[in-house]
């Protein structure tokens, strides 16, 4: 399976991406060296060679700088394509394209992910920021799924699909993080096959330990009822 996910960004977008990446790298270096509380936004900006004003053009908080990635899922163009049912009509592949994992993650990003996870283990506020971003992107995906099926509001099924799809995207990233021999797209194919095999497994019905317990009501003494 061949999956094409990224386009060549314009010069302005490339510069913005480079600045965001530099700020994120500076934030992680300083936090790893000095601790989260000891680092300020101004120090991060100076470490990255930009002004404090530039820092706040990209991030509202230090936590966001440590994570450094985009908060929104995809771009306006990729979201519109997803809502229209594209680019392939396959929901899992289309979510992979929407998230633009191959466009946003390169070989040098493995060290960044490792740093983020290490900082998250030590700093509760960074861990909270990771979880907050994940929940926000899951909700965003649920809303996009509603639009994709021309619905009015997210239903339980949309939220379930969004949670499953985002979980699979996370699994793709961690598989790529652990195994450098395959690309993100190749890991997606492997995990898709694993998921299909799991869903195809026969369901074993659960049998109560005491079959009579599920069908026989517990008697109540008459004098206990008022």
UniProtKB/TrEMBL annotation:
PROSITE patterns: HTH_TETR_1 (PS01081), HTH_TETR_2 (PS50977). Signal peptide: none annotated. InterPro entries: DNA-bd_HTH_TetR-type_CS, Homeodomain-like_sf, HTH-type_TetR-like_transc_reg, HTH_TetR. GO terms for molecular function: DNA-binding transcription factor activity; transcription cis-regulatory region binding. Residues 17-77 form the HTH tetR-type domain. Residues 40-59 bind DNA. Keywords: DNA-binding, Transcription, Transcription regulation. PANTHER family: HTH-TYPE TRANSCRIPTIONAL REGULATOR RUTR, MYCOFACTOCIN BIOSYNTHESIS TRANSCRIPTIONAL REGULATOR MFTR-RELATED. This is TetR family transcriptional regulator. It comes from Nakamurella alba.
